[in-house]
Design brief:
262 residues; alpha+beta
C-alpha cells in the first residue's frame, strides 16, 4: 500500500467535514442526515472525509437485514478525497473507519452504501473492502442539470420547499404543485436522467448478521453480465478495473457515492 499506510483517521465535526465535502464531492452537497464524520489525514493535513448517518428512508433499508434495530446500522452516505492521497487510501480509510465503529459503536451491526456507475464508478472500492453486493438496478434517481451539476431526487424530497437555483429560485414543490414528481422537476429544470446503474453494497461488521440478509447476494461477475461496470461515465469491465485505471486514490470513487434511494 505504500504511503497509504501512513494515513490516519480522526472523528471531525460537521463544521470541518461539510465544507470539505462541498468542495470535493461531485454533487457539491452534503447529506443532512450525516452525523458521524471521519477525517482522513496525511502528514497532519486533511485530505479526505467519510460521512456516516442514518438513511434518508430507513423504512426501506432496515428490512434488508432481518432483526435489525432502528440504530443498528449506518449508511456511508458521502465520501470525498482530494488528489493528494496515495493509491489505496480509500479502501484503507474504509477499513480503519469500520474498526473504529466496531470498537466504539458495537451496536452498529452493518453498513450500507451505494455506488452510481452512471456518474462515477461501480463500487470497486467497496469490492476491495469486502462489501457484499446486494442490488443492481438502472438509475432512476440521478439527473444531469444544464449547468453540468448532478442532483439526486432524495435531495429534493428532503427539502421540497427550499429555493432551487436551477428552478430560478422556485422550490421543488413550486414546480410540482406540492407533489413528489421527479419527472416534472426534471422537465422544469431541463434535467436529463443519467444512463447507467446504481449498485448497493453492504458490509457486515457483525458477521453473524449476514445470514439475516433478506435479499440475494449478487456475485460481482453479475456487473459484467449486465454491462453495469462503469468508471466516470465510461463502460468498463471488472478485468479493466484490475488493470489499474480505477486507482483507489483521491480521484477515484470516493467522490462518487450518493445516499440511498431504497
Amino acid at each position: 500500500m505504500g504511503r497509504a499506510k501512513e494515513i490516519s483517521l480522526k472523528v471531525i465535526p460537521g463544521k470541518v467535514a461539510n465544507p470539505f465535502m462541498r468542495r470535493h464531492h461531485y454533487s457539491g452537497s452534503v447529506v443532512n442526515n450525516s452525523c458521524l464524520h471521519f477525517g482522513v489525514f496525511l502528514d497532519g493535513r486533511l485530505h479526505g472525509v467519510m460521512s456516516y448517518g442514518p438513511s434518508l428512508n430507513k423504512s426501506k433499508i432496515l428490512p434488508l437485514v432481518a432483526g435489525t434495530g432502528w440504530n443498528e446500522y449506518l449508511e456511508l452516505n458521502r465520501m470525498a478525497f482530494d488528489s493528494v492521497l496515495p493509491r489505496n487510501s480509500e479502501s484503507r480509510a474504509i477499513s480503519m473507519s469500520i474498526k473504529l465503529l466496531k470498537k466504539y459503536a458495537p451496536h452498529v451491526k452493518w453498513i450500507v452504501s451505494f455506488a452510481y456507475a452512471c456518474s462515477c464508478g461501480d463500487g470497486a472500492i467497496y469490492r476491495a473492502s469486502n462489501f457484499v453486493l446486494t442490488g443492481i438496478k438502472e438509475n432512476e434517481a440521478l439527473c444531469l442539470l444544464p449547468d453540468g451539476s448532478k442532483i439526486h431526487k432524495l435531495t429534493l424530497e428532503a427539502n421540497p420547499l427550499a429555493p432551487r437555483k436551477e428552478l430560478g429560485g422556485r422550490s421543488f414543490f413550486d414546480v410540482t404543485d406540492g407533489n413528489f414528481s421527479w419527472g416534472r422537476y426534471m422537465e422544469a429544470a431541463g434535467g436529463i436522467l443519467l444512463s447507467g446503474y446504481q449498485l448497493r453494497y453492504i458490509y457486515f461488521i457483525d458477521k453473524g448478521k449476514r445470514k439475516d440478509l433478506t435479499v440475494p447476494e449478487i456475485p460481482y461477475s453479475r456487473i459484467d453480465e449486465l454491462g453495469a461496470g462503469m468508471y466516470r461515465g465510461e463502460k468498463m469491465t471488472l478485468a479493466e478495473h484490475h488493470v489499474g485505471k480505477e486507482a483507489a486514490n483521491g480521484t477515484g470513487e470516493g467522490n462518487c457515492d450518493e445516499g440511498d434511494s431504497g
